[in-house]
Amino acid sequence: MKKFYKSLAVAAFAMLMAIPAQAQFNWGLRAGANIVNMKMSSDVFGSKNNAGFYVGPTVKFTVPIVGLSFDASALYDQRTAKVVNDANGITEERKQQTIQIPINLRYGWGLSSMANVFLFAGPQFGFNVSKHYSDWTWKSSQFSVNVGIGATVLSHLELKANYNFVVGKSAVASDNLLGNSRFNSWQVGLGYYF
């Protein structure tokens, strides 16, 4: 029996060593659009015409045997919202600029040797690089979560769509009427892996 467990341990070790040999590492560039869904804690204010973009380098680590992969990026992310005071009709623009680091776990299915579809989810860490307003202070960092779907074509071109929701606050306003905000976002983007 002892010999059986030893053989089993050797076989398991050999399988674990074989996975990295078949794993693939790719790097590339990613860019896309943000459709901002600004949430505020005040009923006095609303938002409209919300948009933005993101761009930056990305890496992908794929283990083809199990269909799992991971991706991580370092993205410059800009989100803009127009804050509207419903009481007096005054509109002000608020622009958030951050460096975002999303890390996603992916599970994919091959449609053929030419394409695959995948689901993904993971945390995203953001660091503020935008200016503060006199009545509006951006948080220096924020944590958010991505959930989405994507497709890869010809092993190089990738299309992703996801929802990014902020856990906590994106900004704090000095005016109690303005309240606190979260810059959640629908995101659609393209990536190219070399």
Give a short summary of the structure.
Helices cover 11% and strands 68% of the residues. The longest helix has 21 residues.
Classify the secondary structure makeup into a structural class.
Answer: mainly beta
* β-strand number: 11
Q: Which ranges are low-confidence, i.e. pLDDT below 50, for 5 or more consecutive residues?
A: 42-46
Tell me the strand percentage band.
over 45%
Gyration radius, in Å: 21 Å
Number of helices: 1
**Major β-sheet profile:** 11 strands, antiparallel
Average the pLDDT over all residues and give the rounded result: 81
Structure description:
It is a single chain. By secondary structure, this protein is mainly β. Helix content is 11%, strand content 68%. The chain is built from one helix and eleven strands, in the order αβββββββββββ.
Secondary-structure blueprint:
Layout: H1 2-22, E1 24-40, E2 45-63, E3 68-73, E4 75-85, E5 91-110, E6 115-128, E7 136-138, E8 141-153, E9 157-167, E10 171-173, E11 180-193
Antiparallel strand pairs: 1-2, 1-11, 2-3, 2-4, 3-5, 4-5, 5-6, 6-8, 7-10, 8-9, 9-11, 10-11
